Amino acid sequence: MKPAPPADDPPGVPGFRTWRGVYWFVFACFVLVVVALTLFSRYFA
Prior knowledge:
- The protein is mostly helical.
- It has one helix and no strands.
- Helix content is 56%, strand content 0%.
- The longest helix is centred in the C-terminal third of the chain and has 25 residues, at 19-43.
């Protein structure tokens, strides 16, 4: 007996077709925030 393949449920987020796209977007936002915090801390130090 073969196990059933995992269901690739689409995310319920508008603008994204796959979960991979959602993960990449969240990761890119995190990197952007870290870079912004680094730049602001150097500018206002």
